[in-house]
Amino acid sequence: MNRAVRVRLGAMLCAAVLLLAATGTGTAATAAPAARNATAAAGIAAGSSAALRVDQLGRLVVHTSIFEVEPTGQPQLFTTACDAGEQLVSGGYASADGMRLVFSYPSAADGTPTADGAQPTAWTVGIVNAAKTVPRVQVSAACLAGGTATTTVSSNTKIVDQSSLSLSAACPGGTQLASGGYASQWNPRSGIAAVTGSYPNPDDSWGIDVVLVGISTPAAVIGANTVTAFAVCVDGSVQLADVTPTPLTLTPGTPNCTGLSAGIAVNCVTPFTGNQLVGCADGQILSGGGYQVTDGALPGPYSVLVNAPVDKPVWIVQVNGTSSVPTAPSLNVTALCLVAVATPVSSSPAGGGGLPTTTGPRRDVADNSFLVVGGISAGVLLLIVLALLAALALRRSIRNGGRERRQRPPSSALTAVVRAQRSAYRLHDFRETT
Amino acid sequence: MTTIRDILFGDVLPGNVGPPAEKIEAAAERLAGAGAVPQRGEAPPAAIARTAMSKVADVLDFPVNDVLVGAWRTRSALLQAARETVGKPDAHKEVTLKTYSFGWDHDVDVDVTFNHKTIATVSVVAAIGVDITGLVAVVRNGRIAELTSGEMTISASLTVSSNTVVPLSRPLAEGKRTLPVLAEVTLPNGGLPLVQQPAEASRPG
Fold first, then answer.
1. Contact state of A412 with B114 under an 8 Å Cβ cutoff
2. A111: which of A124, A209, A222, B55 fits an S-S bond (Cβ 3.0–4.6 Å)?
3. Which of chain A's residues have a Cβ under 8 Å away from the Cβ of B104?
């Protein structure tokens, strides 16, 4: 592009910007005082939002404890607590093969389930060790530190009257779902209700899926088995970000078949393994996570060995089990992420500024419609400012006559750098014959 | 010379550029599918995984020869012969390795950045297994002076590892190649030193 063309283009752009600016001024002329107030309010609101992000959300701290699980027929409780002043938002576990994980719920520090409306301070996991080993398990508690939000618990208990069922616990109005958990009554003589899914529902309640294990006549256990879904709810000016489930792909291993005659597999079981990590975007805080089987069945009712937050922070789910069905089930793993809400700045009723949209209900940070005043939005104003800046930049470029032709690398590109490398020979693998 | 990258992802040259790129892409898909790449708002996991795998492939583009000679210098009958002949210009030994095998691991940590900010760290391990048969070499004065025969089979696998709450390990790529040792090992003039030479040992500095 030659210089003359660039100058003409710059002039046209400037003219367009001036025309746009003039039009905007005209539109806003009748509401000039209001527009100024709106601009000021927008500035305050934006500043408040930035401050709220820090003050309201705080930071996520994941506390973990490792326990040894003795072999026993009854559930053993293991609890990890938040520190004083922190708010529990979720928790989870990393278990081991052979363990039956029957509880994973918000609790007090002594392991007692948190009552509805009360504040949880810890996360408790209940495990039945049906093996003869003493494995180690890890219990995590994810807590908000330094924020202004508070968390409470809401629960829903149901008698297991079917061979499989789902139930959910919803948060009360004015609160947001942060995470959830479950507890199933342990009654091996009358069958066991195993939780095979623990996940956020589209309606922002916490859902669990339950199957009855070890008995074929559910009617016989009515009244004997109950399951409870827990929802951890967060109060304050925070909002749940969009929830996007991520598939967890289970990889099948080599089927192990046993049969009475060669070539005829009487009974085959296929091992399946897989894991998935999900996290949150910048500016958001991981509050919880869960998994849901969307097609098929888990490779064993207790095959979810890991369902917990880790301090990266991500939510991790790991499955390891066997199934007589050779096809892998479909699972989704979902992270729950919290964002701060920009609380609209209230105008004084007697202020006379006429800012009706700033007195409305709480809005999402992404919804800036409360900045619309007098027929011109802050977005249009911003556009005008940006156009002016672009015109100035173009003009400067023309003046420089292309002197600044250095190409900078695109700042938004994904790049990879090697942080570290290590090499080693496996000394025990050296073999030679001479 | 064959590189570790060639074994895992195929030869870049000669041949089409397609197959290696496809294998790297497939490894990136496995990396994303393994859950080793976090969900980020800045870029989808597939893009993060592709960026990381491209870097890993670059890092692994070094000759198998380096790994092989390093193994000989670590533990081998060749090393023993070199120690016995070093400093004795007239002495030489003919060494026959009916079989020789070893393993070698190379860990690589790659940070994926967006706008100069790290959004993901991927840790992979390239595990190499080498089996050599029928190697005949002449060792003179601490150096391999001649290689007359030998064949080696190299197996390479690339796995992603993660030290989260539980160790994760998932295969990303693997390859196997049988090569003549003579074609892969370059003997410089004067031979390939396996031990420090007396002159070097006494040299100041």
1. yes
2. A124
3. 423-426
A221 CB-contact burial (10 Å; exposed 0-12 / middle 13-18 / buried 19+): buried
Distance from CA of A48 to the nearest CA of B (A): 23
- Smallest Cβ–Cβ distance between A426 and the set B37, B105, B111 belongs to B105
pLDDT-wise least confident of A60-69, A141-150, A311-320, B158-167: B158-167
SS3 A151: strand
The CA distance from A108 to the nearest CA of chain B, in Å, is: 23
At A303 the pLDDT is 92
Lowest mean pLDDT among A196-210, A352-366, A387-401: A352-366
Q: Across chain B, where does the E strand assignment appear?
A: 92-114, 117-140, 143-163, 167-180, 192-193
Write the burial class of residue A405 (CB in 10 Å: 0-12 exposed, 13-18 middle, 19+ buried). Answer: exposed
Over residues B171-200, the mean pLDDT reads 85
Angle at B90 between CA B86 and CA B93, to 5 degrees: 65
For residue A331, what pLDDT is reported? 95
- Length reported for chain B: 205
Question: What pLDDT does A380 receive?
Answer: 62
pLDDT at A355 over 80: no
Residues of chain B contacting residue A419, judged by C-beta atoms under 8 Å apart: 109-111, 121
CB pairs below 8 Å between A and B: how many? 147
Question: From CA B43, how far away is CA A352, in angstroms rounded?
Answer: 46
Encoded amino acid at A60, one letter:
L
Closest CA in chain B for residue A286: B39
Question: Which strands form A150-159's sheet, in the order they lie side by side?
Answer: A76-81, A122-129, A99-107, A176-184, A226-235, A150-159
Statement: residue A387 has pLDDT above 60: yes
Point out the residue among B40, B110, B114 whose CB comes nearest to the CB of A418.
B110
Whether the pLDDT of residue A27 is over 90: the answer is no
With beta carbons less than 8 A apart as the criterion, state whether B64 and B126 touch: no
Backbone angles phi, psi at A4, to 5 degrees: -60, -45
pLDDT band for A395, please (50, 70, 90 cuts): low
Distance (Å) from the alpha carbon of A69 to chain B's nearest alpha carbon: 17
Residues of A in contact with B100 (CB under 8 A): 431-433
C-alpha–C-alpha distance, residues A360 and A377, integer Å: 17
CB-CB neighbors (< 8 A) of A423 in chain B = 104-107
